[in-house]
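User: Can you write out an input/output pair for a complex, sequences first and structure second?

Assistant: Here is one pair. Inputs:
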Amino acid sequence: MRGRPLLYTTYESDQALLNTTAKKVMLGVFLLVVVSLPFQLVPGLKFLGQEDWLRLLSTTAIFTIGALGLNILTGLAGQVSLGHSFFMGIGAYTAVWLGAPAGGPLIGLGLPIWIWLPAAGIVAAVIGVAVGPTAVRVRGLYLAIVTLGLVFIGEYFFRNWNSLTGGAQVGRDFPPLQVRLWKEEAPLIDFTTAGSWFGLDMTGIAKSFFLLVLLAGIFTVLAKNLQRTRVGRAFMSIRDRDIAAEIMGVNEFAYKLLAFGISSFYAGIAGALLASFVSRVIPERWDLFLSVQFIAIILIGGAGTVTGTLLGSAFVVLLPRVVQNFTLWLQSAAVQGEGILSSVANVFIATSPNDFGLINTFAGVGPGLSVAQLNLVLYGLLIIGFLIFEPLGLYGIWLRVRNYWKGWPFTY
Amino acid sequence: MTANLVVLAQTAVPNEFAQTLVDGVSFGAIYALLAMGFVIIFKATSVINFAHGGLTGLGAFLVAAFVTVLDFPGRYLTVLPEWAQWTLNVLTALLAAALIGVILERIFLRPMVGEALFAVAIVTLGLDIVVRTVTNDWIGTNPRPLGAPWGLNVVDLGWVRIAWSEIVQILVTVVLLASIALFFRSRTGVAMRATAFDQETARAQGINVGRVFSVAWAIGAFLAGIAGIFFSVFPRRATGVDTATAFIAFRAFPAVIIGGLDSIPGAVVGGFAVGIAEAAANTYLGLEFLGSGFPGIVGYLLMMVVLLIRPYGLFGTPEIRRV
């Protein structure tokens, strides 16, 4: 590879997923770091192995799966959907129907994970294709509001179907991440309780983390591969110019339905995993805000790119925690009251309802924003900011950094 | 949310059908105001404004703040009767809301002119989160009453009972509809129609397109504020403006789509259609059969049906696809 790094002599090497040495090395390092995280081996990243951070990282893996689905629909096929949380809800409730213990007051069949997890995806995909004809008939902005309607209609059903969903504001327990062969008592592999794997002591959360990262990895490879196939190219041609695509022989209707189906499949799997991982979920979880979070992920990461989707998921899931830690730090700086830092921090922090500040750190209502509200405002501002200043998202920033060093010391 | 959409207490025995119709028209007027502002913004600036809910909540909150907390400019005009002070306070608040609408457009949406419509729509989605969160923080946990001068008074006609606020509301809506229709004949209105038709050509004709954008957002925010007021007084939510007020806009979106995204008469028809459908669902479809919250999705179900038959709504312009 020395000398002519970008010279490809076969189509295979040109189209390879990892077509440069740098990508191979970086992926290898990334995987090593991820695998080592629960064991707290990497200096500087040891805190990520703590239980609360591992929980967030596992959630990131789940959100990655869901966001990859939305990325296929919105980023590749160019169809705006606000209905992603609806399909996640469908997946979650399919999972609980099949996987929850039988015989209780709520619906459940007690089937093992290898049935309920794929079924969650498949049922969501079938429903995605079923509502497709309405959605595909309308274009662009009408579609956004139709899918918005799906969220509200879905939420209504989830809130009122008490025997399946546990009822509004109550919710129910979802089947845990345990592998059984059939309906026997003891699970074959348990991803939720602490134990020893291959001689390594692991907590339950570490086991879940590995399972979810593995699943996210599989779905990432599948999504990445989809981009290089006939189907992926058809999606992109519809996104870029639907009329031109049709003239080239792309069946617009069929491919849009397919995009809806694939996207809903991903959403269903993500919904089932999220519910199972959190273990108790209320029907209101599958609301518009969840959909907006996924839109934020693909826009902040970079629409149409798989790498960007990974970055965006990590960003959106970890942001609240980072903001919280930052606020705590500011608060301690403000309370200790020394030097310039403290004065600056004092401007931002309100410690009591009478104190002026942009961020409230006390319980109760005051003029400033609470940490949760600050997070919401930041989501909103980040979505706006990325769309105005960097439409390619984090991936675009990375591209610019990379290209700068590629040509260094020249700027071209 | 729906639990608060109180249908008038039925002490006398009003005619069920007539009562439903009155409720529906009164609901529908709120939706029509919201849908009309939405369509005006869409037509003039090609922006799908998901922040309309945020503007509604903000407008209603500003009214509550100007009426009860600031009492501005009423506190300087004590010679005037009570109701005139109230009206002046409300108008001032609505002008403030319109000004905020203009500022928001100038900062967040002007840089997006010429970008893909969907990207702009998502910007407004982000804007909605920001506006709604900040407004909710200001509102706090307790609903803020609007102190409307007509209070809880009801006109009892025997066969139907109408709240005074509903009469005021329908009158105001009719007046606003007429003035919007007249406005489109004025110079600025014609400029807006030209801009809606083709922004670049309008500019080439010497129309100040930026000013048209500002006017459209001012009208949109003004109408949203009025809808927010009528949603926060007696027959709807007697307690006042709270953190759920902004959600009313999500129930007005189907009205826009039913009428057609770019048709102002369509928005009015769609608004009344959704309002009457919701009131009918409230009256005739029982809680025990359909559970709570069904009226909230009636509009969306109606929208799905209309879209299956007419993909561009009842009065929308079909998109012509040319190669």
